[in-house]
Design a protein that fits this description.
Elements: E1 12-20, E2 23-31, H1 33-63
């Protein structure tokens, strides 16, 4: 059975803790399956646009 993104699934949770001497940090993130897809789409857009910018800058540098 395929995974249904429209179903009401609870959020995924991740916790990271860091302790070094007197410092102690804790971060907690909760995200839904739709949120994970949105983050993936945003990351893909950033990576693809970076490739276009690099190609354009190399083309401009070659014309100098």
């Amino acid at each position: 059975m395929p995974y249904d993104l429209t179903a009401d699934h609870g959020p995924e949770t991740a916790v990271a803790e860091f302790e070094a001497g007197p410092l102690r940090y804790r971060a907690e993130v909760r995200v839904t399956p739709a949120g994970i897809l949105a983050v993936g789409a945003l990351l893909s857009g950033v990576l693809l646009s970076t490739a276009v910018i690099i190609r354009a800058s190399r083309a401009a540098a070659g014309r100098r």
